[in-house]
Specification:
Elements lengths: L8 H26 L4 H13 L2 H26 L7 H18 L5 H30 L3 H22 L23 H7 L12 H17 L2 H11 L1 H6 L4 H17 L1 H10 L10 H11 L4 H24 L5 H17 L5 H11 L7
Length: 369
């Protein structure tokens, strides 16, 4: 296997992802042209649907909040040399923890409910990640297999709970009763209004600020602490980690606990901030989108933020596109999202070699690859 060509840091973090995104959009434009629509008009509709108004921006950032949480979850595990694809299951169980606090303690003051809901979401998500982590660290089970299996187990468990235990009395829809007002997160339009900044009412809520805070926390932990150094060493070279006195098995469990806790916070946005009840399939595949967000964001919180906003824009702008261009239905929008994931994930190195050669020649280097 050949070693990927080296790029300057600015090209690695900015230019290469932009080229991959452009390639995905160009191919998407070809597909849209084939079905008889204008690619340029489709792009304008998507951009306007994602950023053309306060309402559009609110929805884009609301979707992005979920992807920030799951992208950070994937990134933390990745730095430890692990591929956590169990974000959906961990978000499911984390949301259950948050929802149970909101259901049972809704009569308490908001300032008391909020920290308990955050802690419960993180603890439930971490607990769901612990078993695959233990099996990887102590029994050698592959983390990819166990985490994806736990996604299905989480889905089945939530279905059973909502159908048989948590369902609101007197209804057939598998969802819990609504949370009390003290157990819901305020919308950002409400918070902005209190300081004199008008903003349209959207589902965007306080969880967005929690997601930004989680990004700062991950940056500090991974790049500014001794534990973060041990995490990255163990992820890059387990033999060197052992030689340095680091126990990779312990790092595996700790990294997955943090990863699961981050994914578990998704329930703050979806349940406590928007739906105000526990319902089925509220992660809606955000755990898998988080994989693409982390890869495109180079597993760094800043890159993850921008990648999450991109995928939030694709989701919100895609809804507008499918409404205004009936030929470009929801399935076509999924195809566009899939192409972005393909080029920014699995095919991210396609343009690396030519780009490295071009930059080397442009810079006058004689040792161009």
């Amino acid at each position: 296997m050949s070693t990927p060509a080296k790029l300057p840091r600015w090209a690695e973090l900015g230019l290469l992802p932009a080229i991959n995104l452009l390639a995905a959009l160009l191919l998407s434009g070809v597909i849209i042209k084939v079905i008889g629509e204008s690619p340029w008009a489709a792009l304008k509709l998507m951009a306007d649907g994602a950023f053309g108004s306060q309402e559009s921006v609110g929805y884009t950032l609301y979707y992005s909040t979920n992807f920030i949480f799951t992208g950070l979850a994937v990134a933390v595990a990745y730095h430890a040399g692990l591929f956590n694809i169990g974000g959906d299951g961990q978000a499911y169980l984390g949301g259950l923890g948050t929802g149970l606090v909101c259901l049972w303690l809704g009569s308490w003051p908001f300032w008391a409910v909020l920290p308990l809901a955050v802690i419960a979401g993180a603890v439930f998500g971490a607990a769901w990640a612990f078993i695959p982590a233990y099996l990887q660290a102590r029994r050698g089970s592959h983390i990819v297999i166990t985490t994806i299996m736990f996604n299905f187990i989480a889905s089945a468990l939530m279905t059973w709970l909502l159908v048989n235990i948590l369902i609101k009395p007197g209804q057939q829809s598998p969802e819990s009763r609504e949370f009390a007002p003290n157990a819901t997160l305020p919308g950002l339009h409400t918070l902005l209004g209190k300081i004199g900044i008008p903003f349209t009412s959207t589902p965007l809520n306080l969880a967005f600020l929690f997601a930004l805070a989680a990004g700062v926390l991950v940056w500090v932990l991974v790049w500014r602490t001794r534990w973060g150094y041990a995490l990255r060493v163990a992820g890059q070279n387990s033999a060197a980690a052992v030689y340095a006195g680091i126990r990779p098995s312990r790092i595996t469990i700790q990294a997955m606990l943090l990863s699961g806790a981050l994914a578990g916070l998704l329930g703050l946005n979806e349940l406590m901030g928007s739906q105000h009840r526990i319902l089925l399939d509220f992660p809606a595949g955000a755990g898998f989108v988080g994989i693409a967000v982390a890869l495109m964001g180079r597993n760094h919180p800043v890159g993850i933020f921008f990648a999450a906003v991109l995928f939030g824009a694709l989701m919100q702008g895609g809804s507008q596109l499918s409404f205004d261009m009936p030929r470009v239905n929801r399935d076509m929008v999924v195809v566009i999202q899939g192409l972005v994931i393909l080029f920014c994930g699995a095919l991210e190195n396609v343009f690396r070699g030519p780009l490295a050669t071009l930059l080397a020649r442009f810079g006058g280097r004689k040792d161009a690859p």
